[in-house]
Amino acid sequence: MEKQVKELPLIWLLIGNLVESTGMSFIWPLTTIYMHDYLGKSLTVAGVVLFIGSMAMIAGNYTGGYLYDHKDARHYLLLALTLSLFATGFLVFESGWPYYPLMIILNNFAIGVSGTIVNSLATTIKRYDSRYVFNLMYFMANVGVVLGTLGVGFVINISVRLIFIINFVMFAVFFVIASLFYKVPKNDKHHLKQAKQGGMKTRRYAVYIITAVLIAYFVIQLGYAQWQSNLSVYMEKLGISLSKYSLLWTINGVIIVCLQPIISWIDEHYNVDIFKKVYLGIGLFVVAYSSLIVAHAYWMFIMSMVIVTVGEVCLFPAIPTVVDKLSSASEKGKYQGQIGIAASLGHAIGPLFGGVVIEHYSYGILFTLMALGVFMSEGWLILCRRLKAKIGDWDESKNWRVNYQNGHVGGQNHDRKWGWHGPGRRYFKKNR
Fold this sequence. Notes:
With 432 residues, the chain is an all-alpha fold. The protein has helices spanning 10-24, 31-38, 43-70, 73-93, 99-122, 130-158, 160-181, 189-196, 204-228, 230-237, 242-270, 274-291, 298-315, 318-326, 332-360, 363-386, 388-391, 396-405, 423-431, and strands at residues 408-409, 412-413. It has a two-stranded antiparallel sheet with strand order 1-2. Mean pLDDT is 77; it is low at 1-5 and 392-432.
């Protein structure tokens, strides 16, 4: 009998996610404002820097996915964290132009590599269903957002350099956690063997669905990037202070922290169709982006952020779950990396796209395009899922059900006792 490969402890994966997210939340909300107000650069220049930084993250996502599928990714995870330590440490001593954008770009590449590897490592945890794992990871990441955005408002009044120091310390702690506890032997030797031999490829229909999901995710992140960049300037023009803008992200994090456990409980006990969550999440983003068209008072931005947040809670953890369940074991890193690429591409194009639309038209036109794009992407996803009968190689509901009953999903074996939560979990305990 083959010796079972030791799993990465979920608790340390979650703690690492929390630490990294807290550190990054001290920097990303202020990037555009820092370059515009502190370094004296135009919004166009800031948009170009953010674009290049996001392209660097895309390169990191692709690299991280490849390394996970073909190499001992733990070593490369530590190397990526070392690059992040160098970049953030450099900013402690020199954060002027052009050093700030150069280090941000380098750090984005490193985060792309490390983030993809960490998400891929999460798929090796077989004791729990993947939706449970990704729900918890998303929850801890947003606890970090709450802590970071709460802290940045106080720290920036003391010193901008202190923000960079905190960011460096957080990456240092994450490095220690990864070096001590992320010891999955060769990322699961069975997985590596499959990958090197070509393994079982992801089904054709599954690829179509994954692609449609990623397109929707890209369009949503294109709009989400406006919240993180151009919207802060828009709110300042309306007389709404930076501290109130920062408070919106605190509200975002608090709602996620409060709501995510409820969503996870519902998933575990009622086995909600994952695609219903995807549809609901995308629909809420359509409503939220549409509400910005008429927003002019602070309370309107609060309401829009609340809708965005509920959509985010439904959608963002569901995407890696869908991709994990549909992808084969030999292509986990590839498709988890593509999730990061979709997000990074949205963030890359978003600020620049928004800046051009604002400069030539208006904020209202920008928000209209955001809402329309998300609406069309949801329609495309629904259409792709309805085409399964014509494609003919994948009966989604039947295949998922049979695979779960056989302890097999997407080419990956799952322990029958723990491979499903809610009704499925009880089924396996009864019939194993």
